[in-house]
TrEMBL record:
Pfam families: Ribonuc_L-PSP (PF01042)
CC terms in the record's Gene Ontology section: cytosol; mitochondrion
Protein name from the UniProt record: YjgF-like protein
Protein's organism: Agrocybe chaxingu
Cross-referenced NCBIfam families: Rid family detoxifying hydrolase
Top-rank taxon: Eukaryota
Sequence similarity: Belongs to the RutC family.
Record-linked PANTHER family: 2-IMINOBUTANOATE/2-IMINOPROPANOATE DEAMINASE RIDA (PTHR11803), PROTEIN HMF1-RELATED (PTHR11803:SF58)
Length: 151
């Protein structure tokens, strides 16, 4: 058996108590450069780690709330989400998920894939992951400035 692998110094692990803790050997998100890779968020309530009560609408709202908490903990914001992947237990829920998703992101429309899967962790109805950009800073002369072309 090989030696355990440690996280490379170019990667930063993101963790927040505002979203459910990982339920396996993975991070809530990983930062690399100005990109943030968020693991799939399922509709668990962070304090109890229990699936939110209700159907697909309530579960989608909670999954997106958890995703937002991880995105913000990683130093980004919803308007910088570039790509999402939505995993659905049933494609019959696609229209309902779209309604919640559309209200959540507003006029921002990240690239997205939506797929039906056989089963999700804890038998939830939806899981959502994303890739986002972070605030990117550049050195200008002797001052640190946010680069508006990258925000």
């Amino acid at each position: 058996m090989s030696a355990p692998t440690s996280t490379h110094e170019s990667l930063s692990v993101v963790s927040t108590s505002q979203a459910p803790a990982a339920i396996g050997p993975y991070a809530q998100a990983i930062k690399v450069g100005d990109l943030l890779f968020c693991s799939g968020c399922i509709p668990l309530e962070p304090p109890t780690m229990q699936v939110v009560e209700g159907g697909i609408v309530a579960q989608t709202e909670q999954a997106l709330k958890n995703l937002k908490a991880v995105v913000e903990a990683g130093g980004s914001e919803l308007g910088k989400v570039a790509k999402t992947t939505v995993f659905l237990k049933s494609m019959d829920d696609f229209v309902a998920v779209n309604g919640v998703y559309s209200n959540f992101f507003g006029s921002h429309t990240p690239a997205r894939s939506a797929v039906e899967v056989a089963r999700l962790p804890k038998d939830v109805l939806v899981e959502i992951e994303c890739i986002a950009r972070q605030v990117y800073y550049v050195w200008h002369l002797t001052k640190l400035h946010a680069d508006p072309t990258t925000m």
